[in-house]
What we know:
The protein has two helices and 30 strands. The protein is mainly beta.
Amino acid sequence: MKKLKQTNKKIQIILALLVLVAANMAFLPKVFATTYLTKTSLIFTNMNSGGASSLIVEFTTSASNTGTNGQIVFSGWTGSAGTGTVATSQAVANTFGPGSTDCETITGATAHLPGSPTAAGTAGTGTIAITDATALAISTSYCYVLTSAITANPTSTGQGTATVTAGADAASNVAFDIISNDQVVVNATVPPSYTLALSGNTDNFSPLALSTGSIGSTTGITATVNTNAQNGWYLWGLDANTGLKSTTQSYTVASKTPGSNATLTAGTEGYVTGLPAAGITQGSGAGTTSAITAYASSGSGNGSGLDTAERQIAKSTGTANGAIVTIKEYAAISGVTPAALDYSDTITLVGAGSF
């Protein structure tokens, strides 16, 4: 009798186990028959409370998704001013913003929503239906843009939720946040900048000895300007002696016609400063560098004299990065110009930017 009771108890245990297995077998097909969207994102292009917003949507289909259309449902949006308003219609696009940035670039998705999808919203329920899309591919990440989808975000701040569906996959839940201000103001200053660099501080005539039969020329020096002055920059020159002066002879080969263009003649005394066109370059920048007409040199002996007044010799119409101005002196002597080894002059060059 005891053995019979033990046998019955074993049978009861086995039957109970069989019932549990059968119940689980009945439930498993339901679990594996449901497929879900993954990697779902719902991006508000304006997170400000009360602000209008487009939506950028991203999702990845399952390995068995064969459907087409979908929808977005916002939880708790009734269309009132306090809880936000969904637009009744909005365009479905692939790009967003003035620069037409592709949603694939924004989200990292690999495909756009196929077909010619359209969208329609129901303001009172916070539902946006997507229709007219063609069949979605399996295991593929998609993106699309709903332009002007949200007429007004909720006026209150805080987290909200929505469900996103696409094709045959089950809905994916997402969260978003409405904040008081989604903008960051960045301030900076760019200080004014101006530099003037001379290639040297000595510019001798070559050859050093002047001749009555020719016009002498210095080797030349360069002035290099760098500036962010939007209105350009200027270069001035002045001459301490208003010519080439010999202290031992108390004699000066005078500057010729300061401020007016002139050309020297061999055998006739004269002294000028000239800026050869080939020696002027703008470098980079928004301006154009040029010589002032009086000092623009067309060749040997052409230019204008300098004196003790500051005379503008070059200018630019805008910014410059590595603008170069070449400056030369020309001189002619006559047969009675006093001989001396100490003819000299000091020219001062100054510049400034117009900011």
